[in-house]
UniProtKB/TrEMBL annotation:
PROSITE patterns (alphabetical): SOLCAR
Name of the molecule in the record: Mitoferrin-1
Annotated PANTHER family: MITOFERRIN-1 (PTHR45758:SF4), MITOFERRIN-1-RELATED (PTHR45758)
Region (Disordered): 1-31
Gene from which the chain derives: slc25a37
Protein function: Mitochondrial iron transporter that specifically mediates iron uptake in developing erythroid cells, thereby playing an essential role in heme biosynthesis.
Length: 341
């Protein structure tokens, strides 16, 4: 009885040459055949692990970025660079201070990235079939990344608000739950989504550029789409750096909306809470001019390059590992079925 190899090996991104039917063999090419055959759970598992590691490994730099984006920082929280900022925070506030807010970030990053990668892979595949007849399509990559971002940010936005409030200098909150309860009590549930439209406005172009850059780099460095850790790391780092630099102005506005920086708002005679992307843009410009939109850009790029490289390399590894496990199991289950027939 002959096994239909089309069930095991299919094309994902790049057209492959026709080959005669043969028994399934575990190879790097099978790794890229994952989406048509493997459950969404596989993408979600790989995405969740990648997301948690992405946010965890570089978290101290993210804390520095939040502080450097402050429009009117405390004199004790004015930093010349990322390294100097980390050194001073540890010396004056303790070794664990740069990690404050990491717990809520991990709680949000797991499910957010699980949805993100699962949606991206499925939608990219479907759109590529329509646009390029199964071939790689930059338009499909960009659209899939943008739609996946809407789901990701819906989960991640409340965690971002709590995280950034806890990262700020002289943060008044005792801990995670105190921060959540205080925001809910004093500002209402809407505070957790006050920056959602700005976050989407930033992240949709960020992810579109990110995915297009990543896939473009993969075409050059890894044209056969094999499992190649070096190409995944380099492509991820380049995609992260370019996307981060381009979208920094929107990130500054998002930080202002999330933190509701009291000193800055009081100096502008803004009572209550600042809301809306347009108001955030006006406030940033009035307080610091055009240069204010690029506050923290160095920290943002330094954070995003390794973070994105980590996310892609971990995701691609887990995708490869889980594919290999499934492909090894399929011939065994088939043999077991034949022996019982």
């Amino acid at each position: 009885m002959e096994v239909n190899s089309d069930r095991v090996v299919a094309t994902l991104d790049m057209p492959q040459a026709d080959s005669p039917a043969e028994e399934p063999v575990i190879s790097d090419k099978d790794y890229e055949s994952l989406p048509p055959h493997v459950s969404v759970t596989t993408h979600m598992t790989a995405g969740a692990v990648a997301g948690i590691l992405e946010h965890t490994v570089m978290y101290p730099v993210d804390s520095v970025k939040t502080r450097m984006q402050s429009l009117q920082p405390d004199p004790n929280a004015q930093y010349r660079g990322v390294y100097e900022a980390l050194k001073r925070i540890i010396q004056t506030e303790g070794l664990s201070r740069p990690l404050r807010g990491l717990n809520i970030t991990m709680m949000g990053a797991g499910p957010a990235h699980a949805l993100y990668f699962a949606c991206y892979e499925r939608l990219k595949r479907s759109l590529s079939d329509v646009i390029q007849n199964g071939g790689n399509s930059h338009l499909a990559n960009g659209v899939a990344g943008s739609v996946a971002t809407v789901l990701h940010d819906a989960v991640m936005n409340p965690a971002e608000v709590v995280k950034q409030r806890m990262q700020m200098y002289n943060s008044p909150y005792r801990g995670l739950w105190d921060c959540v309860q205080t925001i809910t009590r004093t500002e209402g549930m809407g505070a957790f989504y006050r920056s959602y439209s700005t976050q989407l406005t930033m992240n949709i172009p960020f992810q579109a550029v990110h995915f297009i850059t990543y896939e473009l780099m993969q075409e050059q460095l890894n044209p056969h789409r094999n499992y190649n850790p070096t190409s995944h790391i380099v492509s991820g780092a380049a995609a992260g750096a370019i996307s981060a630099a381009i979208t920094t102005p929107l990130d500054v506005c998002k930080t202002l909306l999330n933190t509701q920086e009291n000193v800055a708002l009081n100096s502008m005679n803004i009572s209550g809470h600042l809301s809306g992307m347009a108001n955030a843009f006006r406030t940033v410009y009035r307080l610091g001019g055009a240069a204010a939109f690029f506050k923290g850009v160095q920290a943002r790029v330094i954070y995003q390059m390794p973070s994105t490289a980590i996310a892609w390399s971990v995701y691609e590894f887990f995708k490869y590992f889980l594919t290999k496990q499934q492909l090894e199991a399929e011939p065994q289950s088939f043999s077991h079925k034949v022996s019982h027939d």
